[in-house]
């Protein structure tokens, strides 16, 4: 297994509120761990929320005595939500802070993933790209209700309104997925700074046409910036 990760401030933001983590080595009972978090709030708050969430989840997983990956991830996400709310109460600067989260681990060619918010995880196989996670956002609800098309949702004025976040409410329910992977599968995780700037087909084309995942990740970042770079951009690519 090989993984690469890049985060970039983009073209318009003053602060990078994304925070990412990758380990192809064991973390606690998990054989590997990959995380993307996209913070929300004021400059200080959003940066703090994403960093605190990722670092705390890593610690919780390291300390977990559980054996089942889904349960370990689910419990850690719920625990970090309460801890982030507690952190937010420590300073007025942190009021209202929160973060999206997508977290994954892979073993025996099975991907286990959880998400909260609109950061995404895709599986790329040959000529196909499949979004595994489901956006917890207002526009996604409108798409599901038939009020918007997918292409309209990407540019909708309320695109950034998310309906579920770490630190948003006292209780959070991560959405969990378990997916069988093919031998040549690639897993791509990203913040919406990428998906708001690139269509899925363009993401697929870049990954397919760059056999080196580090080159692919850098090109995705560069292309997002070329298309406007309106937000922080984070990309993790895992190759089995």
Summary of the model, kept short:
By secondary structure, the protein is an alpha+beta fold.
The helix tally amounts to: 7
Largest sheet: 6 strands, antiparallel
CATH-level-2 architecture: 4-Layer Sandwich
**What is the share of helical residues?**
25-40%
Quick check: average pLDDT? 93
Instruction: Determine the N-to-C terminus distance.
Output: 5 Å
Q: Provide the CATH superfamily.
A: PPM-type phosphatase domain
- What top-tier CATH class fits best? Alpha Beta
* Main structural class: alpha+beta
Range of strand content: 25-35%
The overall strand count is 11
Which regions have little confidence, pLDDT < 50, spanning 5+ residues? Answer: none
Q: At the third CATH level, what is the topology name?
A: Phosphatase 2c, domain 1
What is the total domain count?
1
- Helix-strand sequence: EEEHHEEEEEHHEEHHHE
C-alpha-based Rg, rounded:
17 Å
> Which of globular, elongated, flat, extended, rod-shaped describes the shape?
globular
């Amino acid at each position: 297994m090989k993984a690469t990760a890049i985060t970039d401030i983009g073209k318009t933001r003053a602060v990078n509120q994304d925070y990412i983590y990758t380990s192809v080595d064991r973390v606690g009972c998990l054989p590997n761990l990959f995380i993307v978090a996209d913070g929300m709030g004021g400059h200080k708050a959003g940066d703090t929320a994403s960093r605190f969430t990722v670092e705390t989840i890593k610690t919780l997983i390291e300390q977990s005595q559980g054996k089942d990956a889904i349960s370990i991830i689910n419990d850690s996400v719920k625990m970090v939500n309460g801890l982030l709310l507690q952190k937010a109460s420590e300073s007025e600067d942190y009021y209202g802070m929160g973060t999206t989260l997508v977290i994954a681990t892979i073993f025996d060619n099975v991907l286990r993933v959880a998400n909260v918010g609109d950061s995404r995880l895709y599986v790329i196989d040959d000529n196909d790209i499949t979004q595994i996670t489901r956006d917890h956002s207002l526009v996604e609800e409108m798409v599901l209700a038939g009020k918007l098309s997918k292409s309209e949702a990407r540019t909708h004025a309320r695109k950034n309104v998310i309906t579920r976040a770490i630190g948003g409410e006292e209780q959070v329910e991560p959405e969990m997925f378990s997916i069988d992977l093919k031998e040549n599968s690639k897993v791509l995780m990203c913040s919406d700074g990428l998906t708001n700037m690139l269509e899925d087909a363009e993401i697929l084309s870049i990954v397919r046409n760059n056999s080196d995942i580090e080159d692919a990740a850098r090109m995705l970042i560069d292309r997002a910036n070329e298309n406007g770079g309106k937000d922080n951009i984070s990309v993790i690519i895992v190759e089995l």
